[in-house]
Amino acid sequence: MPLFDFPLDELRAYRPEPDEPQDFDAFWDRTSEVADRHPLDVRLTPQPGHLGLVDVWDVRFAGWNGDPINAWLIAPAGASRVGCVVTYIGYHGGRGFPHQHLRWPVAGWATLVVDTRGQGASASASSGVTGDPHGSEFGHAPGMLTKGILDPDEYYYRRVFTDAARAVDVAASLDIVDESRIVVSGHSQGGGIAQAVSALRPGVAAALVNEPFLCHFRRSCEIASTGPYPELVAFLGAQRDLEQRVFATLSYFEGMSFASRAQAPALYSVALMDTTCPPSTVFAAYNRWAGPKDIEVWPWNGHSGGEGYHAQRQLEWLSERFGTG
After folding, report:
1. Residue among 86, 111, 279 at smallest CA distance from 198
2. 55, 72, 108, 269: which could join 113 in a potential S-S bond, CB 3.0 to 4.6 Å?
3. Quick check: helix, strand or coil at residue 34?
4. How far is residue 259's CA from residue 207's CA, in Å, rounded to a whole number?
5. Which domains does the chain have, with CATH numbers?
6. Is residue 274 among the annotated active site residues?
7. Is 188 a catalytic residue?
8. 8 phi and psi angles, rounded to 5 deg
9. Rounded mean pLDDT of the chain?
10. In angstroms, how far apart are the furthest CA atoms of the chain?
11. What tens digit of pLDDT does each residue of 220-269 get?
12. In 10 A of CB 306, how many CB atoms?
């Protein structure tokens, strides 16, 4: 895949204004108030010790509307008061298996790996076990991106972002976790979720945001040729009279708006040949991030980004700030 977006020097300066509704903050304050009517109801079930150097718990807690959300908690064996990386999953994926998430425990951190409701049932993705019991009155394109798209209150990602924010509350409630060292992390959809949670939970200590999805929606629809954004294009192509309502809903979930409210230190990554989360959409959010920030640029890669190289950079970056977990 050749370079297809703006040159890097233009990307570093690219800072479009989001089409932000006046009640953006009020919408999310109201969302939090509604969600908080339900106690977290955290339930931890220890898992068999097949991984001798770590402890594993199956976690269930109450997300949006009290719906059960599943996660793994994985920590160094016998850990006490360690930092925790709350990990969000890419599109279509689920929490998978504990052995797939050992990087942070090996580095001395706990990790809380959070299922994304309604996902994890695709043959090409890691498995998940969390459903989404909420529908919408209007049909949606295959996938999750247009589910409830005509009403911000009913939109799918209102529930997902709320689940994710409450996962930070779960981590902070755990005896083995040092609540002053909670980091949010994710790639693609997971990166977009981590970005939103950094604004919704300003107490997080840091954010690791890799090739984030859910940023600069209109440009993403115009130039992304792979991945989930074409679901929006397909919907708009069929429902030609609904463009204004669709983008009005999406304005409440815009990554640029969340980034401008996030204060924690952040390490981003971007791949310049990424046709799924185009680099201009990543920089549109990164350039508005309000806290301290760094970005790693992978010029010759698509949506996979830096993979192991960037994982090493994340370990170094967190170690510089917090030492080991």
Report:
1. 86
2. 72
3. helix
4. 11
5. 8-317 (3.40.50.1820)
6. yes
7. yes
8. -60, -40
9. 95
10. 58
11. 999 999 999 999 999 999 999 999 999 999 999 999 999 999 999 999 99
12. 19
Whole-model pTM?
0.96
Instruction: Report the SS3 class of residue 54.
Output: strand
Bridge-based pairing of strands 110-114 and 82-88 is parallel
Q: How many CB atoms lie within 10 A of CB 305?
A: 23
Please list the alpha-helical segments (H only) found in 145-294. Answer: 156-173, 189-200, 217-223, 229-238, 243-250, 255-259, 279-286
Residues 6+ apart with CB under 8 A from 203: 168, 172, 179, 182
The pLDDT, as a whole number, for residue 325 is 64
Pairing of strands 68-76, 54-62: antiparallel
252 labeled binding residue: no
Residue type, 243: E
- Candidates 187, 274, 280, 310; catalytic one: 274
Locate 67 and state its tokens.
Answer: 């719906």
pLDDT tens digits, one per residue of 1-18: 689 999 999 999 999 999
Task: Reply yes or no on whether 173 is catalytic.
Answer: no
CA 225/CA 285 separation, integer angstroms: 20
Q: What share of the chain is helix, strand, coil (3-state, %, to 5)?
A: 35, 20, 45
Higher-confidence residue: 132 or 307? Answer: 307
Residue identified by tokens 């009290």 is: 66
Gap between the Cα atoms of 255 and 157, Å rounded:
12
Question: Which tokens sit at 77?
Answer: 């064996």
